[in-house]
Design goal:
The chain is an alpha/beta fold. The chain has 27 helices and 16 strands. The longest helix has 36 residues.
Amino acid sequence: MKTPKQRSVDPATVAMLEAAASKGLAVAWDRQEAMEPQCGFGQLGICCRNCTMGPCRIDPFGEGPAAGICGADADIIAARNLVRMIAGGAAAHSDHGRDIAHTLLMAAEDEKCDYQVKDEAKLRALAEELGVKADGKDLRQIARAVAEIAFGQFGQQHGEVVFAARAPADQQKRWQRARVMPRGVDREIVEIMHRTHIGVDNDPVNIILQGVRASLGDGWGGSMIATDLSDVLFRTPEWVRGRANLGVLEPANVNIIVHGHEPTLSEMIVAAAQDKEMVELAKSQGAKGITLSGICCTANEILMRHGIPVAGNFLQQELAVTTGVVDAMIVDVQCIFPALGALSQKFHTKFISTSPKAKFPFAEHIEFEESRALEIAKRIVRAAIENFPNRKTEPCVPGHSNPLVAGFTAENIYAMLGGRYRPSYRPLNDAIMSGRLRGVAGVVGCNNPKHRHDYGHTEMTKELIRNDVLVAVTGCTAVADAKAGLMCPEAAMEYAGRGLQEVCRAVGAPPVLHLGSCVDNSRILVVLSNMVKEGGLGESIADLPVAGAAPEWMSEKAVSIGFYVVASGVFTVLGEPLPVQGAPRVTRFVCEDMEELFGGKFAFEADPIKAARLMIDHIDAKRSALHLPGPMYEVPYAPRTAVEEARAAE
């Protein structure tokens, strides 16, 4: 069994792991270790359950069966399994987008709806982009037209997803040549499920290309719709200060945590928790006030629009309950442990599920309806407040939290770089072209108990910014970096290279830019497209000196994200390999051949420092291909100290 310090680099998490152990509570790390040794066939991607003649598994050493009962070999089986993961991930993010489109339509049709358009400028810009004629129409009519077009993107059977036009023309040509330009989001997901049924598509490359098509429908379709329409409804984020880690919980207050992914719920919980009536009710129950915080991507949503503190990322959800001060854990969909219900029974915490799509053992289900959004949100907040006197244990809140700056978007980066009167990406491109910045990296993804918690995220980020690479983050990576103090402007002076320091000082930005939740990886795609449009760095995203990474990924959503990023032209390093390594042809395709088609490819590297250096080497190669000078301030790769080697070995 690993010690708490071997399980996480985050001090608050270490403290709560010790507390959980002292109480005899099993959490995700314990369940992961109990699962060892994990099924090697599954890890290599060469077991199949797509029909009941099996399950079939292929021996990677050539001593057992070389094909399943139907004749499918390792490459066919691995390709099928992989694209079904893409289908699951694309469905999750795109269904999120569909729900946001539904909410915008409700707001457009009912002037008394609890949701209303909060960003008129973003709505009008979207309307113009989508060809909606605004002349003579009021705001609600424009909103309705935009919502209907967004809805159409999901079920569209012909043509191309509309936001694919945002990509550079060269990248679009790559998709068209490979015949992976997405039609409609649902269309591509259904085709994956059909192709992977027994006896349909048995060419592994052809199978994977359909997965690419569905992933592009996610990144440039469903996810992009979710991001843009969330901005319309809830306001495009602006730079905001906040704090992150379990230390934001206040023992003297009613503590409410929202956990999941859909902002339609969390936005209304924010409104209800700030209602004067609710605050007074909390005081009448003996609390000093109400502390609302978030976990996972819901945390990022309410952070970037309201400055609401972040309690933690994916692997901290059980530890938050273990503090004994969480009066309600309110969840909707995605990344929520079924184990939370049983754990909450050992404390006083109300575990409240809200989505008809997601019910949990031992949860109190209060179904959220957008038509009665604020009413139901107040009911949930009231239940949390009335639970405050029922606490069973002494508070056990670790005293760890760090300041951060969040709320960067493709739009406000213009203003950050060029100022209010000449907003432009020109300063970013010029800084890269001169060598002051080496390039840009997107580091995203989940936590995974197979990996030391937060270590991959924070160590990779530090190595990148030390080498003058500006880092953009989303999701659980963003929370990890915030907890480590990397998302405040002062971090540039402590961790960044000289060139990145100069840029951060000039614009007052942190060296690590928070771009939102995992669905907001679409913002990164738009940023990269804007860099190409600005000029001087090539004709496509594939030409840019940029790279991507997911050091601790674990979900199907991450697979879909990885594929749409690679297919958009970005070299991407995964800390946990895709489950394809038992299939040589599939491995070669994703790690080599995809580059010829799209300009991007995957690499697998668990060590975050080595992974960061793969990214830096790729960035340098792209600089050389563009005939750009070397870095203005060369930072040699520093050999690891004995302490660092020991820490990595843990």
